[in-house]
Design goal:
By secondary structure, the chain is an alpha/beta fold. The chain has eleven helices and 13 strands. Helix 2 links the parallel strand 4 and strand 5. Helix 1 packs across helix 9, helix 9 runs antiparallel to helix 10 and helix 10 packs across helix 11. Bound molecules: alpha-D-ribofuranose.
C-alpha cells in the first residue's frame, strides 16, 4: 500500500463555548470560555493523519466567506495542501456549535452549508486522485450518496476504503461491506446492528467478540471505539482489544477524529490493524487532555512514545 491518504472530508468552523454544566431546555447560562477553530470530522481527521506523519490530500468544500478563509489559513498553518478544497458561491462554510462541560463531555450541532456541495459528481471528478491513493477515508457527515459513490469507486479501483460512520447515516449495506475498516463508536455500532443489546458498561472483551462476529459480514473489518475504555478491532485474521491509559479528560471534542486520522495514517504505511488501533488509542488519549480539536493532536513521536508505554 503506497500513496497518500485521501480524505473526502466535512469541514466546519467550530464555535465552542466552555461551560460548567450543560443548560437545560429553556435555560440561559454563562460560559467561562469561548474559542473559534477549524473543525469538521473530515478536516480534523486529515490534520490528525498529517500530524501522524502521512501524506494527506483533503477533498472538501468551503463557502466564499470569512470562515472559509479562516479554514484555509488553518490548514496551511498545519502544512496541509489545499488544492482540492473547493470554494462554492451559494452556501456558507459549514459550522458547528459546540458546548463543552467541565466534565469533558460535549454537545455538537452541525449545519452542513458548503459540505453539501461535496456530491457524487465530485467523487467522479477526483477519480484519478482516488486511483493514486494509498487509502481513502471519509465520514458520516457527508451526503449518503457521496459516501456510497466513494465506496463504489474505491472498490472499482481496488483502493482501501475506511469509513468513520459518525454521525450514523443510512449508508447502504453494499457500501458498508467494502469498508476496511468501518470505524464506529458504540452508538454508531448499534445503528448498524452491532451490539444492539449491549448495555452501557459492556466489557472490551465482549465488544471484541461483537466486532469479530460482524467482521466479514457488516464490513470487511470493524473498529469500535469505547471512549475512556479504549477500542476493539476485528478482521479476517483475528480480533483484538486495545485498552486506553487512564487520563483526565478536559475536552473530548474531536478525540474520535484524532483516533481515526491516526489509524488511517498508520494503516496507510502498512501497519497491521491491531497495531494501528493500539497507536490510535494512544493518540485519542493524548487528544482528550487538551482543549479543542486540531490543536489537541499530539505529534507522531509523542503518540508513538505513548503507545510504547501502553504496551510496556
Ligand atoms: O468530531 C468533532 C467535530 O464534529 C467538530 O469539529 C465539529 O465540527 C463536528 O464535525
Amino acid at each position: 500500500m503506497s500513496g497518500p491518504v485521501v480524505v473526502f472530508g466535512s469541514l466546519n468552523v467550530d464555535s465552542t463555548s466552555y461551560v460548567e454544566a450543560f443548560p437545560a431546555p429553556g435555560e440561559t447560562i454563562l460560559a467561562h470560555g469561548f474559542q473559534v477553530a477549524l473543525g469538521g470530522k473530515g478536516s480534523n481527521q486529515a490534520v490528525a493523519a498529517h500530524v501522524a506523519g502521512a501524506e494527506v490530500e483533503l477533498v472538501a468544500r468551503i463557502g466564499d466567506d470569512a470562515s472559509g478563509e479562516f479554514a484555509l489559513a488553518t490548514l496551511e498553518r498545519f502544512g496541509l495542501p489545499t488544492g482540492a478544497v473547493g470554494r462554492v458561491a451559494d452556501a456558507p462554510t459549514g459550522v458547528a456549535q459546540i458546548t463543552v462541560a467541565d466534565s469533558g463531555e460535549n454537545t455538537v450541532i452541525v449545519t452542513g452549508g458548503s459540505n453539501l456541495a461535496l456530491t457524487p459528481d465530485v467523487v467522479d471528478a477526483e477519480r484519478s486522485r482516488i486511483a493514486a491513493a494509498g487509502l481513502v477515508l471519509t465520514q458520516g457527515e457527508l451526503l449518503v450518496d457521496t459516501i456510497e459513490r466513494i465506496a463504489e469507486v474505491t472498490a472499482e479501483l481496488g483502493v482501501r476504503f475506511v469509513l468513520n460512520l459518525a454521525p450514523p447515516a443510512p449508508v447502504a449495506a453494499a457500501a458498508l461491506v467494502a469498508c476496511d475498516p468501518l470505524v464506529l463508536n458504540e452508538h454508531e455500532a448499534r445503528a448498524v446492528g452491532i451490539g444492539t443489546d449491549a448495555a452501557a458498561g459492556t466489557s472490551l472483551d465482549e465488544w471484541r467478540e461483537l466486532a469479530a462476529s460482524a467482521a466479514g459480514t457488516v464490513a470487511r473489518s470493524i473498529v469500535v471505539t469505547l471512549g475512556a475504555a479504549g477500542a476493539v478491532a476485528a478482521d479476517a485474521e483475528g480480533s483484538w482489544t486495545a485498552p486506553a491509559p487512564r487520563v483526565t479528560a478536559v475536552d473530548t471534542t474531536g478525540a474520535g477524529d484524532g483516533f481515526t486520522g491516526t489509524l488511517a495514517a498508520f494503516l496507510a504505511e502498512g501497519r497491521p490493524l491491531a497495531e494501528a488501533v493500539r497507536i490510535a488509542v494512544a493518540a485519542g488519549a493524548l487528544a482528550v487532555q487538551a482543549r479543542g480539536t486540531v490543536d489537541s493532536y499530539a505529534p507522531r513521536e509523542a503518540v508513538l512514545r505513548a503507545a510504547a508505554e501502553l504496551a510496556a
